[in-house]
């Protein structure tokens, strides 16, 4: 059995913290996540979520305090000899269904669409990867009639720098992440609302430890 423990710390939320423990048993992963509110005024079920996942097939999430299930099913079909990755997500509590599809044209180009049923909420995104290191990701939000942009650059194989900008909310995001068996895994994120008069960034840090049981 293999396990991974992920911790998250939000500096701007008075040091709010969260943790996720995932255990792999064969093809299935069992995941539990908690937030700091779980231990406010003593241990409780507040902020506790459980999940069962088979990568590439399905995910079942259960929000303990809300007693709410979320189902997610994945499959891949071929369209004109190109792989089309499909995802179906349904949340029972708010009766929300989301369809997501990604068509991989080649190793450098892919097109994706995300649509919430019975709404105008639809997003179209194009991803271009240059030489396997630099990615450009323009995205059009039909509901907001606006564009979002993202740019990422891989450094030294393990480190990734990513910048994003949402034109509708004027939100600027920066992220530095590392995924390495030798040097560890972490992610440091910062977001800045350019529409606010007092521009203070929101910062969070996340790290992952992998171990065998």
From TrEMBL:
GO MF, one annotated term: porin activity
Tell me the compartments it is located in.
Plastid, Chloroplast outer membrane; Plastid, Etioplast membrane
Q: How does it assemble?
A: Homooligomers form large rather nonselective pores in plastidial outer membranes.
- What's this protein's name? Outer envelope pore protein 24, chloroplastic-like isoform X1
Q: What InterPro entries does the record tag this protein with?
A: OEP24
Q: Native species of this protein? A: Abrus precatorius
Keyword Chloroplast part of the UniProt annotation = yes
The way it spans or sits in the membrane comes to: Multi-pass membrane protein
Q: Which top-level group of life is the source organism from?
A: Eukaryota
Q: What does this protein do?
A: High-conductance voltage-dependent solute channel with a slight selectivity for cations transporting triosephosphates, dicarboxylic acids, ATP, inorganic phosphate (Pi), sugars, and positively or negatively charged amino acids.
The gene for this chain is LOC113865875
Q: Which GO terms describe its biological process?
A: regulation of monoatomic ion transmembrane transport
- GO CC annotation: what is one? etioplast membrane
Q: What is the lineage of its organism?
A: Eukaryota, Viridiplantae, Streptophyta, Embryophyta, Tracheophyta
Query: Which keywords are on file for this protein?
Result: Chloroplast, Ion transport, Membrane, Plastid, Plastid outer membrane, Porin, Transmembrane, Transmembrane beta strand, Transport
Q: Please tell me where this protein is predominantly located.
A: plastid
């Amino acid at each position: 059995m293999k396990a991974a423990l992920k911790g998250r710390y939000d500096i701007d939320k008075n040091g709010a913290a969260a943790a996720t423990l995932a255990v792999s048993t064969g093809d299935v992963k069992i995941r539990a996540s908690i937030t700091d509110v779980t231990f406010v005024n003593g241990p409780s079920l507040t902020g506790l979520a459980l999940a069962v996942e088979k990568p590439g097939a399905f995910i079942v999430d259960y929000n303990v305090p809300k007693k709410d299930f979320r189902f997610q099913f994945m499959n891949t079909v071929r369209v004109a000899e190109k792989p089309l990755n499909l995802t179906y997500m349904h949340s029972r509590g708010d009766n929300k269904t989301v369809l997501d599809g990604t068509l991989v044209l080649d190793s450098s180009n892919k097109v994706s669409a995300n649509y919430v049923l019975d709404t105008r909420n639809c997003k179209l995104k194009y991803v271009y990867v240059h030489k396997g290191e630099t990615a450009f990701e323009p995205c059009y939000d039909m509901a907001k009639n606006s564009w979002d942009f993202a740019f990422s650059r891989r450094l030294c194989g393990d480190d990734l720098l990513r910048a994003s900008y949402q034109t509708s909310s004027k939100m600027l995001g920066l992220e530095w992440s590392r995924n390495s068996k030798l040097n560890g895994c972490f992610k440091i994120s910062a977001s800045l609302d350019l529409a606010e008069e007092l521009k203070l960034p929101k910062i969070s840090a996340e790290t992952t430890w992998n171990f065998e049981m």
